[in-house]
Design goal:
The protein is α/β, with parallel strands linked by helices. It has one domain: Rossmann fold (3-Layer(aba) Sandwich), CATH 3.40.50.150. It is built from 10 helices and 7 strands. A 7-stranded mixed β-sheet has the order 3-2-1-4-5-7-6, with helices on both faces. Strand 4, helix 6 and strand 5 form a beta-alpha-beta unit. Bound molecules: S-adenosylmethionine.
């Protein structure tokens, strides 16, 4: 029988695995712009398919009628703004004030009461009120101290927590490009199952895990130029090499569209 996973070991492994994604200094020196930044355009609610995903369904199930929502790492609000007609208020926390401005503007367009709080979760949590539903989409791979991040999500939820991440680390889809341009082998952990294992080891009841195909419209060819530019930036290639990135896409194909994983904790 396999020994039961220990929470401390799992969280150290999560942190160590994340640290391995650091870009080597010799390549980082070549960067003309921030390789980690994601263009706001790809995070817009409109870039996400309208049809209901398992995550959306779970959120609707956990949200009481006209309840409140806290969206941690809200970005432009893709994970929560579609709840506009069912929620009385959506609070967005993000460390990036530009994203919060877009979130507020998108909320206004939908006539929903929104509140933006700038800061890093969970450090900012004392300034945040408890809500019915707490969600966090596509943020966990950015968080080294994952146990305290998850615990704070749980502590601020009255009915439940919904976390969505890609099944693989979001940068893993570019690994073939790192090999192509630099002959560099990149890591592929942590992944969504590692996160699920940590959440189980935290001892919550009512935990669910489900994988499903991502329906972001950004998978479509209409976003091709933005995606080529994003690959160029992610790989610290100069602006003049966009043509080479397009050649690489033709040779090795676009990064495959990722699957998503939903992890929910019902209280
Ligand atoms: C990939 S985007 C996802 C945005 C949105 N949740 C979505 O699914 O479209 C991640 C966002 O989380 C924010 N973020 C990352 N770590 C954070 C933290 N610890 N506290 C607050 N915001 C964070 C980033 O600034 C960014 O806006």
């Amino acid at each position: 029988m396999e020994p039961k996973a220990n929470l401390e070991d799992l969280s150290i492994k999560w942190k160590d695995n994340l640290a391995k994604w650091a870009i080597p200094d010799r390549i980082l020196e070549l960067c003309e712009d921030d390789p980690w930044q994601i263009p706001a355009q790809l995070l817009m609610p409109q870039a996400r398919a309208q049809e209901k995903s398992p995550t959306m369904e779970k959120q609707l199930q956990l949200l009481p009628y006209q309840g409140t929502v806290l969206d941690v790492g809200v970005g432009a609000g893709s994970g929560s703004l579609y709840l506009a007609e069912y929620a009385s208020e959506i609070i967005g926390v993000d460390q990036n004030s530009q994203m919060l401005d877009i979130f507020i503007q998108q909320g206004k367009q939908r006539g929903i009461r929104t509140k933006a709080i700038k800061g890093t979760w969970p450090k900012i949590s004392p300034q945040v009120q408890k809500t019915d539903l707490v969600i966090s989409h596509h943020v966990a791979y950015n968080v080294a101290n994952i146990v305290e991040f998850i615990q704070a999500l749980f502590d601020y939820a009255k009915s439940g927590v919904v976390i969505e991440v890609t099944t693989q680390h979001p940068m893993a889809s570019l690994n073939r490009f790192w090999e192509y341009f630099y002959q560099l082998k990149r890591p592929n952990r942590p992944n969504a199952k590692d996160l699920f294992e940590i959440i189980l080891a935290m001892g919550f009841d009512g935990v669910e895990y489900k994988e499903f195909k991502s329906k972001r419209n950004s998978d479509s060819n209409s976003y091709l130029p933005q995606r080529a530019e994003l690959i160029r930036r992610r790989l610290c290639l100069p602006k003049t090499s966009l043509g080479q990135v397009q050649d690489a896409i033709e040779k090795i194909g676009l990064p495959s569209s990722s699957e998503n994983a939903l992890i929910s904790i019902t209280k």
